[in-house]
Structure formats: structure tokens, C-alpha cells
Amino acid sequence: xxxxxxxxxxxxxxxxxxxxxxxxxxxxxxxxxxxxxxxxxxxxxxxxxxxxxxxxxxxxxxxxxxxxxxxxxxxxxxxxxxxxxxxxxxxxxxxxxxxxxxxxxxxxxxxxxxxxxxxxxxxxxxxxxxxxxxxxxxxxxxxxxxxxxxxxxxxxxxxxxxxxxxxxxxxxxxxxxxxxxxxxxxxxxxxxxxxxxxxxxxxxxxxxxxxxxxxxxxxxxxxxxxxxxxxxxxxxxxxxxxxxxxxxxxxxxxxxxxxxxxxxxxxxxx
Length: 270
Description:
The chain has 7 helices and 11 strands. It is an alpha/beta fold. The strands form 2 sheets. Strands 2-1-3-4-11-10-9-6-7 form a 9-stranded mixed beta sheet, sandwiched between helices. The longest helix is centred in the last third of the chain and has 13 residues, at 256-268.
């Protein structure tokens, strides 16, 4: 059985690393490590020793110059002590068919790095960005999410709906061109969409869609299904008492289920 080794990367403004690591442990990760970006530079941490990377939420570099913009350049230009570019280590990680989960700010980073949506196999080529919400406000609330059953995403197999919190100011997906949006639809790479809590239908209406993201986009995957980025925070719902109305007896599928699906996928590999 494959051992699941999870790396949670923190530093430079990330603020959800402990919650993300806890969620991974609850999901069955055998070894979970929280490491600073500087640990990668110093070669104290080597990506090849892990098979699941979590890029958690937060405010990388205070969102200066745009969400995750500076962090993307840091990945692209930094070298480890061996002299190898960290972006090349990340490229090898993807080539080795391992898993990546980006949450909130982590999703924004995956877009800036070009790890999502990676249409036509064009990894590390930026094809979209998260822009400011239509409301021009920081949106902080729980939202209903519809899971695309046809999506290849390994993190969402067998799921139908989720109820998770969002907390972001830049959550509206903007493709570099309209053709990208069409491809995302036809290839079922839109994994999660904001839905009306009553009708459970995908919606553009505020506040159910907190950002105005087209097609209700809340999460994307790549064609392999091994990379998932989402704006809602699954690590913020790891116990029934996290639910805003748990005292009324209301429950929903815990956010840890996404990581459980990832762990199950890795364990199934020979």
C-alpha cells in the first residue's frame, strides 16, 4: 500500500497551514509536514519525498500586486541549494502524477503558475486569473457547491454537493480568452460551481455566487484530475460543530472528504 506523505507549504502570509495539515491527518495522511518556502530553498524539504502538496489559503505577500502574484514569481525564480529551480522540482512533481490541492490563495497561486487549468497539456502557462469580486467586497460566508459528476477530478469522485465557507476579495475567475471558458465546459474541468441553497442549481446570483465568477466557477481541475484548486475552504469544516447552524441539527458533508478522496486515490496506486 502506498504511503501518503503530505506537504503543506506556508510562509509569506499563508494563514491556514495548521488547519490544512489537520484536515490531511483526519483524511488519513500517513505523514504530514508543514514547511516554509525557505525550507525548499535550503533543501531541508524536497518535493520528491511527498505525493500530495497542499497550497493553503491566506494572504500571500499581503496580496500586493494582486493575489499570489509575487509568490508565483518566487516559485519561478528561486533555486534550491542544489542550484535547481524550484519550478522544475514542481514540474517533476506533476510529471510523476502526484496530487496537488490549492485552497483560496493557493488556488490563485496555481492559476498564476499555470498549473490550472493547463488546457491542451500546457502546464506552467497562465490561462486565467482570479480578479476582484463583483461586489468589490471581501466576501466571508458559507456557500453551497454543486459538484460536476463528469469531472475527472480525483478529489471529488462520488460527491454531489458541498457546503463550505468562502473568505476572499479576489475570487472571480477570468479566462485569458473566451475560448478557454468554452473548453473548460466541454472538457468538464469546472469541478465545483456555486449553487442556490434552495434550488441547488448553479447560479450567477449574489450572494450565493459571492464573486460573480462566470458559470458559477468555484473550483477547477486539470485534464488528469490530479490537481484541484478551489476558492472555498474545506479545511474550515472538519467537525460538525464548524457548521454555522449545527446547534439546529443541520449538517453537511465535511470538507475533509475532498482530502479523503485524494488519499484513497494515492493508496490505490501500485
